[in-house]
Amino acid sequence: MTFTDDDFKGIDPSQEDLMVITVNIDNFSIMKMLVDQGSSVDILYSKTFQRMKIPKEEMKSYNDQIFEFSRDRIGNRGSIELYTMFGEGRTSKTIKIRYSVIEANTSYNILLG
Question: How far apart are CA 28 and CA 74, in angstroms?
């Protein structure tokens, strides 16, 4: 995934701000996806999962533990594989990503590690 200066809207590209993008997942436009290169897991927050109205039966059990920055264990509901589209038109790319569905209070809808 690459970005040019034209992709930055309202953000100074010379700053080291967090990267927040919009993606298309399962025909839903998901805003406020945080890209965190330091994360070892891709997270779909439970509130977002519920809004997408994906049947819970599509989620698989997930036994690995996930920890917050404070090293506290996060409530893990399972995992789900979803096709995620980055970009628009001919320059778009769609890949299948396995998201861990977790309970956490956050201002983001998804965290992409």
Answer: 25
Per-residue pLDDT of the chain (113 residues; tens, 9 = 90+): 555 666 656 555 555 556 677 888 888 888 888 887 777 788 898 899 999 999 989 999 876 667 665 456 666 778 999 999 988 888 889 999 999 898 888 888 888 88
Lookup result for tokens 């927050």: 45
Instruction: Please provide the DSSP assignment of 27-79 as one string.
Output: TEEEEEEEE-TT-SS-EEEHHHHHHTT--GGGPBP--S--B-TTSPBPEEEEE
- End-to-end, the C-alpha distance of the chain in Å comes to 13
Annotation: CATH topology of 17-112: Cathepsin D, subunit A; domain 1 (2.40.70)
Instruction: Name the pTM for this structure.
Output: 0.74
Backbone angles phi and psi of 56, in degrees to 5: -60, -25
